[in-house]
């Protein structure tokens, strides 16, 4: 027995020693040398598996399982106890790329800390808890109806580039470090910004080269060449008949040949499958896999059934060679070696980041600082703001006032704590000074009276819940619980659905009987992350599987006196955080007369409304009027909120409207019904505090719009038309609130600028110095913006942002603000050369504090060879 143990131990030592001698395991070699050696030891089947986003382990070589899909849009997403920063569109309003860098340096620290903690507990790498993060989204927010525009940094190519570069540098760590902290990803490449409902079939064939190179590509180019981003994600749709993930023009000629990108390309999830299911450019998964790799897509993401696992068959059928597979795999493996995930933790500095860094004081302060800087004051009639802390009483009304998850936006983690807007206001006033009422819903013009307490099971009120620690309702029952209130269950914060129920891999059955007193139509209100099925008397009424919880409404007619058995079957899926919400009842019309009576004697109302991540986002099954698939069909404020504001106005109230949204809303009626409008975006875990600080004058707002706020939906073109003509400040001027616009509690005066040279060579850097005076009585921050227009450019943009700078100026003081204009500031698409170029000629520099002509002054410069 002992001899057998000794022999086994000796063999293990020998194997271990041999394994350590393999070149791919030698950290002293370059990532390329290691990847080349490892590829030589792999079977073709193993190679194919390593090119899937959920990459299988290869035990015989000591290769661990690896997942490429994690998210870090504004914090480490789909994880608990992390810091949740403002949504990117709000961060863009800060025009502060230095602070963006600090934030994503913190995000990458938290991502490493969560990953280290998970692995140290003996777990394996999994989706949403890995070192590859598919962030940032640098698609141009060209149309306000796009639900995912909130994930971007706005409608301007230069602002997007500046912000995106800071995101990547913060996530990946120092450029000269041996190991990358994380691998960032520029997505979705390219020409991708809605609509969500047709993204799997859409073919864009009207994007001319000028718009491609001047509008849709600059941010991707900047991330590749300035930030050395390690991943690029190709988009779903087709560009000029070729799917973006099978588009050699995008992935080879532009990305690799023109820009010199050497790292890996990942597919959007399911994009390769779309080749044969939606676009019909491939006949089978085998052909799709070969097309994807040959075009330049190195890693495939899909929910299940990877076409890339058929690559061995593609090689056998001579659709692709093994050498071509190796070329793609080389980039994949180099990425993993660059992370150090195959090396010992003791030589990877990032592996030492402890859990104590999660949501620490510094990160909380960063979240608050950015939330404050994102606040964008759009209207302030008669200086109704800032509010007085000695007010006798104010009303806080609106569907977003007390909604904490709304502040998280989308693609979010779950914070340790969230300060709602109502909570923030309570830090300024006593409870006696505040009357709170939700007032109305975000979109529904009816209120649901719950019938949950009229249900019962075996004589006990409510629903009986039965739980299994298996995903298929088999095995031993863990526990049964009687639930008497509407379901609102989550595993966020490591909470169990019930005592003894695991956080993953469980299933649940909820059962009740309901006998209605009269025949009437009721509605089921549901939402789930995971697999959800609702049955009535054994018939499926509703069924879906979601990776995020979205509100859903289903009407059902019940007959008087008839017994109904209601069942909910729920299964936690994949690595998704489990959530379950359920209620049912009767909808009744909203009556504002009761609200107005409550407000008797109160003159001022803070109305907190807008939208939420439950309405706008990625490919969502939302069926409310004005919304489709996560996008909007019009950009009006939902009618129920508009009617509520109208009732408040008619009652003689002063109204401060706090608009929370990830996109532009046509606020033309609201400029008349409201005295002040604060655009608050989705402001993150400290958003409520930041909003209160601005409302009560403890912070002077400085945010500027990163998108155009249009007057109405009538100004918008066909959503699927990607031509920029008539879109954004660069090609239209008749806006309600223009790009770059934002008020302050003080007033700034822009003086006449001086230019270092009015005639310069095309390769010279110019300096523009702008005197800015704070003419008010409050310290504040102004954002100086510089736009460039090429004179006599008949089809070019009206103006385009090329520089900006934040300036903190004391009351009564004047500061000279200098901005650098490198040669690239004068680069436009040249039709003669068929490329981006700096062409000699006359250029107009426009400078001021918004893109509106009335807020700009100009100076001319002539460039020559």
TrEMBL record:
Gene3D superfamilies: Glycoside hydrolase family 3 C-terminal domain, Glycoside hydrolase, family 3, N-terminal domain, Immunoglobulins. Keywords: Hydrolase, Signal. GO terms for molecular function: alpha-L-arabinofuranosidase activity; xylan 1,4-beta-xylosidase activity. It holds the Pfam family Glyco_hydro_3_C. One of its GO terms (biological process) is arabinan catabolic process. SUPFAM superfamilies: (Trans)glycosidases, Beta-D-glucan exohydrolase, C-terminal domain. PROSITE patterns: PA14. Coiled coil: none annotated. Residues 458-600 form the PA14 domain. Residues 1-19 form the signal peptide. InterPro entries: BXL, Fn3-like, GH, Glyco_hydro_3_C, Glyco_hydro_3_C_sf, Glyco_hydro_3_N, Glyco_hydro_3_N_sf, Ig-like_fold. Belongs to the glycosyl hydrolase 3 family. This is Glycoside hydrolase family 3 C-terminal domain-containing protein.
């Amino acid at each position: 027995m002992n001899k057998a143990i000794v022999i086994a131990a000796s063999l293990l030592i020998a194997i271990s020693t041999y394994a350590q001698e393999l070149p791919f395991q030698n950290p002293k070699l370059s990532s390329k040398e290691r990847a080349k050696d490892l590829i030589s030891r792999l079977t073709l089947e193993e190679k194919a598996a390593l090119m899937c986003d959920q990459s299988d382990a290869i035990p015989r070589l000591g290769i661990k399982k690896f997942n490429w899909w994690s998210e870090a849009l504004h914090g480490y997403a789909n994880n608990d106890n992390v810091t949740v920063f403002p949504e990117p569109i709000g961060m863009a309003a800060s025009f502060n790329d230095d602070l963006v860098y600090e934030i994503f340096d913190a995000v990458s620290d938290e991502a490493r800390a969560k990953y280290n903690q998970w692995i140290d507990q003996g777990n394996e790498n999994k989706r949403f808890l890995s070192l590859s993060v598919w962030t940032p989204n640098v698609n141009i927010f060209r149309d306000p109806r796009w639900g995912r525009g909130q994930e971007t940094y706005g409608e301007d190519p230069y602002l997007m580039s500046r912000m995106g570069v800071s995101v990547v540098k913060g996530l990946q760590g120092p450029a000269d470090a041996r190991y990358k902290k994380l691998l960032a990803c520029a997505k979705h490449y390219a020409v991708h910004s809605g609509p969500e409902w047709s993204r799997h079939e859409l073919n864009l064939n009207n994007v001319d080269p000028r718009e491609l190179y001047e509008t849709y590509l600059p941010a991707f180019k900047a991330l590749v060449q300035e930030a050395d981003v390690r991943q690029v994600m190709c988009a779903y749709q087709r560009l000029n008949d070729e799917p973006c993930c099978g588009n050699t023009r995008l992935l080879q000629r532009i990305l690799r040949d023109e820009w010199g990108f050497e790292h890996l390309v990942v597919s959007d999830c399911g994009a390769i499958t779309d080749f044969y299911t939606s676009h019909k450019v491939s006949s089978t998964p085998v052909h799709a896999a070969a097309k994807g790799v040959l075009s330049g897509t190195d890693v495939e993401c899909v929910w299940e059934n990877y076409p890339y696992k058929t690559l061995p068959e593609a090689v056998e059928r001579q659709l692709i060679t093994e050498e071509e597979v190796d070329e793609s795999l080389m980039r994949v493996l180099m990425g993993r070696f660059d992370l150090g995930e195959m090396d010992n933790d003791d030589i990877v500095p990032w592996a030492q980041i402890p859990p104590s860094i999660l949501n620490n004081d510094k990160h909380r302060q960063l979240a608050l600082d950015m939330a404050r800087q994102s606040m964008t004051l759009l209207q302030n009639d008669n200086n109704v703001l800032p509010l007085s802390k000695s007010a006798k009483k104010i009303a806080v009304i609106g569907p977003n006032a007390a909604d904490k998850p709304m502040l998280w936006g989308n693609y979010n983690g779950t914070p340790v704590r969230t300060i709602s807007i109502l909570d923030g206001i309570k830090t300024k006033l006593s409870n006696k000074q505040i009357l709170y009422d939700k007032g109305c819903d975000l979109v529904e013009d009816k209120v649901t009276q719950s019938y949950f307490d009229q249900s019962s099971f075996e004589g006990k009120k409510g629903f009986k819940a039965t739980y299994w620690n298996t995903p298929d309702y088999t095995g031993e029952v863990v526990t049964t619980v009687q639930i008497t209130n509407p379901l609102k269950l989550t595993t966020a914060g490591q909470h169990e659905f019930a005592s003894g129920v695991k956080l993953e891999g469980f299933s649940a059955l909820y059962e009740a009987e309901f006998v209605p007193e009269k025949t009437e139509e009721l509605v089921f209100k549901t939402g789930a992350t995971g697999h959800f099925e609702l049955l009535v008397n054994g018939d499926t009424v509703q069924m879906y599987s979601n990776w995020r919880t979205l509100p859903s409404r289903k009407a059902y007619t019940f007959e008087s006196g008839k017994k109904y058995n209601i069942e909910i079957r729920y299964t936690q899926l994949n690595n998704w955080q489990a959530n379950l919400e359920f209620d049912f009842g009767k909808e009744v019309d909203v009556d504002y007369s009761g609200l107005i009576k409550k407000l008797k004697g109160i003159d001022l109302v803070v109305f907190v409304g807008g939208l939420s991540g439950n309405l706008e986002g990625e490919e969502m099954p939302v069926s409310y009027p004005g919304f489709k698939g996560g996008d909007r069909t019009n950009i009006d404020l939902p009618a129920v909120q508009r009617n509520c504001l109208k009732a408040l106005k008619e009652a003689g109230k002063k109204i401060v409207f706090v608009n929370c949204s990830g996109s532009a809303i046509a606020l033309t009626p609201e400029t008349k019904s409201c005295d002040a409008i604060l655009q608050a975006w989705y402001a993150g875990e400290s958003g409520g505090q930041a909003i209160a600080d601005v409302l009560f004058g403890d912070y002077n707002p400085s945010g500027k719009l990163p998108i155009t706020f249009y007057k109405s939906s009538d100004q918008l073109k066909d959503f699927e038309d990607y031509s920029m003509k008539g879109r954004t400040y660069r090609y239209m001027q008749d806006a309600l609130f223009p790009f770059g616009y934002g008020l302050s509690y003080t007033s700034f005066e822009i003086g006449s600028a001086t230019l270092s040279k009015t005639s310069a060579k095309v390769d010279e850097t110019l300096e523009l110095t702008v005197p800015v005076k704070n003419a008010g009585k409050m310290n504040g921050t102004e954002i100086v913006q510089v736009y460039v227009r090429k004179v006599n450019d008949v089809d070019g943009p009206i103006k385009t942002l090329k520089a900006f700078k934040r300036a903190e100026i004391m009351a009564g003081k004047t500061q000279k603000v200098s901005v650098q204009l490198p040669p690239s500031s004068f680069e436009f698409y040249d039709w003669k050369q068929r490329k981006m170029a700096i062409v000699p000629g006359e250029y107009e520099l426009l400078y001021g504090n918004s893109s509106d002509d009335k807020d700009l002054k100009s100076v001319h410069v002539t460039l020559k060879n």
